[in-house]
Amino acid sequence: MQNIAREMNLAETAFLFREGEGYQLRWFTPAVEVDLCGHATLASAHILWEVGYLSQEDEAKFFTRSGLLTARQVEGWIELNFPAEEAKDSTAPPELISALGIMPVYVGKNRFDYIIEVASEQIVRSVQPDLPLLAATTTRGAIVTSLSSSREYDFVSRFFAPAVGIPEDPVTGSAHCCLGPFWMKRLHKNELVAFQASARGGVVKVRVQGNRVHLAGQAVTVWRGELSSSL
């Protein structure tokens, strides 16, 4: 599976195997297997519905390294039920700040990533990290976030994870398991709309409910293929 993911060279490649009433689900970057991934889970559910392995009304159930994850269709969106991954206050290593080249307003850390709040959306969009230095400083990645300058969204973010083979992820569900609780406390509401400001960009609807975070996104099939070698 790792060799196939390396050949795909995408942020994550998902692998599914039918088990009972659900599916085993594993995610691999080009470099490592990861414990939690949102967009590859969303894509997996989308495909199961699209090709008819599940009916449109069925809930998709996935058995993963982060426990049972589920997905359902809600008014044209796919909503994932994920664990909250709250960050605790942290002192940023000097190398982390140097790698990102930004002045933090707040720094926290959860079991996966650092979260760095900055003063404006313009700063989030302008970050050009030193990727080798960032890879040496982080165990998985760094989330850079701020309030949105647009009324359309509550907050914006970007996600960099060169330590696991992802220079910048287009849209990162697992990062929003941290971002949701973080911005809920600051904005005093548990339903938020987020924009991940990567080159491709993506909208994520976030709803925090206790120790779970519900993430809603959309998916479209862009290509199909057939694997002709086990690599």
How far apart the termini lie comes to 9 Å
SS strand fraction: 35-45%
Integer tally of domains: 2
Topology-level CATH name of the largest domain: Diaminopimelate Epimerase, Chain A, domain 1
> What can be said about the biggest beta sheet?
15 strands, mixed
Total strand count, please?
15
What is the percent of helical residues?
A: 10-25%
Low-confidence stretches: none
Classify the secondary structure makeup into a structural class.
alpha+beta
CATH class of the largest domain: Alpha Beta
Q: Radius of gyration from the CA trace? A: 17 Å
Mean pLDDT, to the nearest integer, reads 95
SSE order, one letter for each helix or strand = HEEEHEEEEHEEHHEEEHEEE
Question: With helices defined by DSSP (H or I, 4 residues minimum), what is the helix count?
Answer: 6
Q: CATH H level of the largest domain: which superfamily?
A: Diaminopimelate Epimerase, Chain A, domain 1
What is the overall silhouette? globular
CATH architecture of the largest domain: Roll
Can you put this structure into words, describing what you see?
The chain has a 15-stranded mixed β-sheet that branches. The model has no long low-confidence stretch (mean pLDDT 95). It folds into 2 domains: 2-72, Diaminopimelate Epimerase, Chain A, domain 1 (Roll); 88-216, Diaminopimelate Epimerase, Chain A, domain 1. The protein is 23% helix and 37% strand. The longest helix is centred in the last third of the chain and has 15 residues, at 173-187. The chain has 6 helices and 15 strands. The chain has helices at 2-8, 39-50, 94-100, 121-126, 131-137, 173-187; strands spanning 13-19, 22-28, 33-34, 60-64, 67-74, 77-83, 88-89, 106-109, 113-117, 141-147, 155-161, 166-169, 191-196, 202-209, 212-217. With 231 residues, the chain is an alpha+beta fold. β10 (141-147) and β11 (155-161) form a beta hairpin. α3 (94-100) packs antiparallel against α5.
